[in-house]
Write a structure and sequence with these properties.
single chain; mainly alpha; 8 helices; 69% helix
Length: 281
């Protein structure tokens, strides 16, 4: 009977641990995923002075001081004007962001653990962001007006925030749904573990330690559930225009996810302890 109980629970636990391993549920991994590297935006060439640019609050296209104008000269022999160089630089930055959006979209589509609701929300956000950036790219390609290129460059940053808002929204939501999936798988195994402990007890085995460990496991899983459930509060509602004021939403969500992962590691360790206790009984 002991051998049967042990083998049965090893199979159950192994399935859960395989899932946890596949999705990479570690605090360090979560931290790395939620800290995207933002490409440096270069100085965008000679344009009008900052004092003549429209105020972001009153402009129909929002602008930011992140783009710093600089002056330079072009030799008479050059076939590329300063504004053409500016245009090319803005195009390059937009294409970098379009590539990031494409990668995020592919990850969302490939996810096996995203809920239907979250996948739909992310699909809408990514589709709108991509459409807006593609439109902006066409506008940039259609003009060599220095002033207008500066406006487009600033709009690219402040109206979209691909790396500082969209990327964390995707990463945090996917991480939250992965953790929730693992928690559900573990919760489904617990009744089997409890049944194994009960069966062992009925056979006259000393399973007091296993029972205590199972209580600790249930407590850790409950805390993991709580942290995970709180992880994406307001994340999908964050807007590019709200950055950096809404950065705290992402920081708190990340902290909750990392906390949940820590509790899941406690759950994993408790599972092994229970199996060892049953085996020794």
């Amino acid at each position: 009977m002991k051998t049967f109980i042990f083998k049965k629970n090893v199979v159950l636990l192994s399935s859960v641990l395989v899932i946890a391993t596949i999705i990479g549920l570690t605090p360090s991994a979560a931290g790395a995923q939620l800290s995207p590297r933002v490409p440096r935006v270069p100085h965008l060439g000679p344009c009008v002075t900052a004092s003549t640019l429209p105020n972001a609050a009153t402009s129909s296209t929002s602008v930011s001081s992140n783009v710093v104008p600089q002056s330079s000269s072009v030799s008479g022999s050059s076939t590329t004007t300063p504004c053409m160089e500016l245009q090319q630089r803005v195009e390059q930055q937009i294409n970098i962001r379009l590539l990031q959006l494409s990668k995020l979209t592919a990850r969302v589509n490939a996810s096996a653990t995203l809920t239907t609701t979250d996948k739909s929300a992310l699909d809408n956000l990514l589709s709108n962001e991509t459409s807006g950036m593609e439109t902006l790219l066409g506008e940039v390609q259609a003009t060599t007006d220095r002033y207008q290129l500066q406006v487009y460059a600033r709009s690219m940053i402040e109206n979209y925030r691909v790396f500082m808002v969209m990327s964390p929204q995707v990463e945090l939501t996917m991480a939250k749904d992965r953790e929730s999936y693992v928690e559900l798988q573990i919760a489904a195994v617990i009744p089997e573990i409890q049944a194994a402990i009960t069966t062992a007890q009925q056979q006259g085995l000393n399973v007091g330690s296993a029972e205590a460990t199972l209580q600790n496991l249930n407590s850790a899983l409950s805390q993991a559930d709580s942290d995970t459930a709180s992880a994406t509060n307001n994340v999908l509602e964050a807007t590019p225009q709200g950055y950096p004021g809404n950065k705290t939403i992402f920081v708190q969500a990340r902290n909750n996810l990392v906390g949940g992962v820590g509790y899941l590691h406690t759950v994993r360790n408790d599972f092994w302890e229970i199996i060892k206790d049953i085996r020794k009984s």
